[in-house]
Amino acid sequence: MKKIIYLLLMAFLISEGLAQHKTLILYYPNDSTNVISISNLDSMAVFICGASKVNYGGKYYNTVLISNQCWLKENLDIGTMINGNQTPNPTPGGTIEKYCYNDNPTNCRTYGGLYQWNEAMQYVTNESARGICPEGWHIPSQADIETLISTAGGNGNLLKAVSQGYGNGSGTDFFGFSALLAGNREQNGSFLHQTMRGHFWSSTSSGGNTYRIMLWDDRSDITPHPAPFGTYGFSVRCIKD
């Protein structure tokens, strides 16, 4: 993953010297610095993962920094709802179509949309494609997700929101990822497992299957589980390029 300075931004200082020599000094956790000239700028925007929000499709998404990865803190909820018995129109760059659990828009507002893999990827198959994510973000690759799992020590409870799961599967939201058990849309058009399972797509595919992970209501493990491209509808979390 390439180094993106605003992911690791801890503090900044604008020098008070002559206007033509104004600089922005970025301080990193490893005690290194980077000096950027801002002499000719009237204004500038600084993105700080974990503090900044992303405005996409009329909705604001929070961000969370986990190790060196910047994630959206909510499941993606973009597009027009279609009913569970419908199939998205395969039009790259056209209207994004999503499922809402039990065909109820309120579930999309709470849990995010459920997307077929091809729709989420916008009908390309290249790993780390932007898909339906905001500009500058992408559908996480298998490597992205495995890094997240490693950071969490394989403990899904640390990624689940506090309200999710029970007993051995109770979420603690230690990292602020706030994963929700949004359930899924089955290939036959029915909906299952809301509050019981959370399924998250990746952009990595092989042999007709794509890599995805599952979180459980009563277990702490994070289960990688290949799924066919097919017509399942799962949740999407975006990660910063």
Keywords:
single chain; 241 residues; mainly beta; 2 domains; 3 helices; globular; disordered N terminus
Short description:
This protein is mostly beta strands and 241 residues long. The chain contains 3 helices and 17 strands.
Would you give an account of this structure?
The protein has two domains: 5-37, no CATH class; 69-240, no CATH class. Helix content is 9%, strand content 26%. It is built from three helices and 17 strands. The strands form seven sheets. Strands 13, 14, 15 and 16 form a four-stranded antiparallel sheet that branches. Strands 1-2-3 form a three-stranded antiparallel sheet, with no helix packed on it. Strand 1 (11-14) and strand 2 form a beta hairpin. The chain is globular, with a radius of gyration of 19 Å.
Secondary-structure map:
Elements (H helix, E strand, L loop, with lengths): L10 E4 L8 E5 L5 E5 L16 E3 L2 E3 L1 E4 L2 E4 L7 E2 L15 E2 L6 H7 L5 H4 L16 E2 L3 H10 L32 E2 L5 E2 L4 E10 L2 E8 L5 E3 L2 E2 L10 E2 L1
Parallel strand pairs: 8-9
Antiparallel strand pairs: 1-2, 2-3, 4-5, 6-7, 10-17, 11-12, 13-14, 14-15, 14-16
